Amino acid sequence: MLVNDPIADMLTRIRNAQIAKHDTVVIPASNMKKSIAKILLDEGYIKSVDMIDDGLAGQIKIGLKYTDKKQSVIVGLKRISKPGLRVYAQCEELPKVLGGLGIAIVSTSKGVMTDKQARAAKVGGEVLAYIW
Helix, strand, or coil here: 111? Predict the structure, then answer.
């Protein structure tokens, strides 16, 4: 299946799996998706990230995280920079998602990181997505 925007596809698969209350979701792997999944794991939005080797690019198995009442930990996912309209921001212009309660995922020259990490490193870049 040809996907024009693999990052939006990843976010949509996570969103759909959480709406359906699935425990895990499997996503085709890429280096960018691995970096985004690692950030979500480090920030506590997901439970686990496992690599599945299928002989090709592989797949990422993401364990979704829920509260005690089976409410999703991730309330919202929004793709910001799209293939048809790229969005870039300098370190001073990086947005605070929900006043600092959420995160922005930024692709910088030093790798993929959160908005807080990018501000601390004083680097800007492409704003990929908001997670809250």
Answer: strand
